[in-house]
Amino acid sequence: MSTRQVFDKCVLSRLIAHSAVELIALLLVLIGTISRSDAQELTPEQRRAMAHKIVAESAVVKPHELVVIQGNSVFAPLMEDIAVEASKAGGFAVLMPNSDSLIRSVLTEVPDEYLGQPDPTISWIKNVDVYINLPGIYDEPKVMADVPTAKQAKLASANQNEYMSAFHSSKARSLYIDAPVPSAASLYGFDVPAFSAMQWQAISTGESNIQQSAKNIADALRSAKSVHVTTADGTDFIQAGIHKALCDRRSYSWRGGEVGRSQCNAPGRQFCKWCCTRYFSRYDQHT
Predict the structure, then answer these.
(1) Strands, DSSP E only, in the chain?
(2) Is 51 buried (19+), middle (13-18) or exposed (0-12) by CB count in 10 A?
(3) What is the predicted pLDDT for the residue at 15?
(4) For the domain 3-210, what is the CATH code?
(5) pLDDT digits (tens, 9 = 90+) for 107-155
(6) d(Cα 92, Cα 277) in Å, to the nearest integer?
(7) Cα dihedral sign for 266, 272, 278, 281?
(8) Percent of the chain with pLDDT over 90
(9) CB atoms near residue 205 (< 10 Å)
(10) Any residues with CB less than 8 A from the CB of 195 and at least 6 apart, and which?
(11) Which strands sit side by side in the sheet containing 130-133, from one edge to the other?
(12) What is the pLDDT of residues 218-238, one digit of tens each?
């Protein structure tokens, strides 16, 4: 778990029990739906539409529910729109923003003896009906620069057991909005503007559309002996033995999206022990 994820204290409570076929189908839907596109900021109209989907379709906020919206101040416009939509649905919305500068200051200026003290807000959890969370840290490398690992760990792990225990015993349900941050773009090999555009597009996609498309692909995968994946970016590989892999619930991942059998003889080629296909990744990594 990354430091950002620990700070966020985000719990995904709306997990859907998919079969292995449906999970792979869902992944293929997202790959086919989003692409590397030019950077585009969310317009106020797009932001409001996204906020409405988050509140009405994902969180399903009901009248008189207490809705807590947490996240980095970079995402303040979206958080405010979510609060408005939650209020329009009859909920009572509370904003709890954070900021990179605040976290950085706490890490570098607050004496160690005051880090990790008991969190009095944990007792509030029993009153919350819905948590809507966005990333708590925006630029993690900058925030954590030159901060000793031990100090990061002390603050990140503070009250975690108490928090999780209180959450799991509460009535609250939680939704995490994986808004784009620079460290994630770097991890997946994208420039920040392109990654942001891709991520926002994915978040904006309606759940019902994704579920139906995933079902269609899942139905096709159930009778398939192999899967041939290609994209305009150069991806070209065949995953053989797909039926056995699905039955065994094995997972596969390829970084970078540019994997091709035509490159099998290139330096760094590897053989996947779970399939019959040799392939080469420009990152020389695969699972």
Answers:
(1) 66-72, 92-98, 130-133, 173-176, 226-230, 236-240, 259-260, 270-271, 278-281
(2) buried
(3) 28
(4) 3.40.1830.10
(5) 999 998 888 888 898 999 999 999 999 999 999 999 999 999 888 888 8
(6) 54
(7) negative
(8) 40
(9) 15
(10) 180, 184, 185, 188
(11) 92-98, 66-72, 130-133, 173-176
(12) 787 777 777 787 877 777 777
Closest of 211, 189, 184, 178 to residue 30, by C-alpha: 211
Q: Let me know: does 249 contact 285? Beta carbons within 8 Å.
A: no
Please, which pLDDT band fits residue 248 given cuts at 50, 70 and 90?
low
Q: Which residues contact 68 (CB under 8 A, 6 or more apart)?
A: 94, 96, 128, 130, 131, 132
Residue 135, exposed/middle/buried by CB under 10 A (0-12, 13-18, 19+)?
A: buried
Gyration radius of the chain over CA positions: 21
| CB-neighbour burial class of residue 57 (10 A; exposed 0-12, middle 13-18, buried 19+) | exposed
pLDDT of 287: 33
Q: Return the DSSP state at 57.
A: I
Per-position b or e across 89-121, b if 16+ CB within 10 A of its CB: bebebeeebbbbeebbeebeeeeeeeeeeeeee
Query: Where are the chain's structural domains?
Result: 3-210, 224-281
3-state secondary structure of 154: helix
Give the pLDDT of residue 253: 57
**CA 113 to chain CA mean position, Å:** 33
Specify burial of residue 22 (Cβ count, 10 A radius: 0-12, 13-18, 19+). buried
| pTM of this prediction exceeds 0.70 | no
Contact assessment for residue 129 and residue 173, using Cβ atoms and an 8 Å cutoff: yes
